[in-house]
Amino acid sequence: MYVFRTSLHGQTSLLRDAEENHNQSKMQGISRLTQAFPAHPDDFALHSHLSLSVIFGNAHHMATETTLILFKPDCVQKNLSGSVLDRFQKEGLTIRGIKMMTLSDELLAEHYAHVADKPFFPEIVAFMQKTPVIALALEGEDAIGRVRDLLGPTNSKEAPAGTIRGDLGEDMMTNVCHASDGPETAAAELKRFFNEGEIFSY
């Protein structure tokens, strides 16, 4: 932020000082970047496309993850599976496994163990057994968070337009897809819905 004085010479001096401080900050950022890449200290020009967040140490490294998605009966029944899958793939997410399956009482009790003792649990079972579901293993950078962002909030009525649930869902249960909510959950759910040899690397 620049402060202007009534004196023209004073104004010029302040602007020059501000510019020098700005350049000094840039050089400090460049110094930190070259330290991060010690093998190529003279190649900073080749990295001119890097954002200032990288230069000043605020870069966020995204890990490659595999997440579990279930296309629920409302998605299957309304023939939305193709369009939903297309949204995921257009975001650069890769299919590592996909299959259609019916869900047994035992599998649903395990999957929904956190609400299995609730009075509404039989309603969940009835809904999830209306049709077969499609189990999908998707891989990509920060796949777990990105899939959940694409889906929107669990309650479709609260999901904004442009999200999958906001565009295609109806309510809390009839909300198109289930998706893993974290790395540990994803690992457990992938093992629950896919057998050994059904998830592929390519």
UniProtKB/TrEMBL annotation:
Kindly give the InterPro entries that the UniProt entry links to this protein. Answer: NDK-like_dom, NDK-like_dom_sf, Nucleoside_diP_kinase, Nucleoside_diP_kinase_AS
Q: Which superkingdom heads the taxonomic lineage of this protein's source?
A: Bacteria
**Active site residues per record:** H178
List residues of the Nucleoside diphosphate kinase-like domain.
64-201
Required co-factor? Mg(2+)
One Pfam family name from the record? Answer: NDK
The alphabetical list of record keywords is: ATP-binding, Kinase, Nucleotide-binding, Phosphoprotein, Transferase
Q: Where does ATP bind?
A: K72, F120, R148, T154, R165, N175
Q: Which reaction does it catalyse?
A: a 2'-deoxyribonucleoside 5'-diphosphate + ATP = a 2'-deoxyribonucleoside 5'-triphosphate + ADP
Under Enzyme Commission nomenclature, its number is: 2.7.4.6
Report the GO molecular function annotations. Answer: kinase activity
Query: Which family does the record claim for this protein?
Result: Belongs to the NDK family.
What NCBIfam families would the database entry show? PRK00668.1
Under what name is this protein listed?
A: Nucleoside diphosphate kinase
From which organism does this entry originate? Answer: Rubritalea halochordaticola
Q: Which gene encodes it?
A: ndk
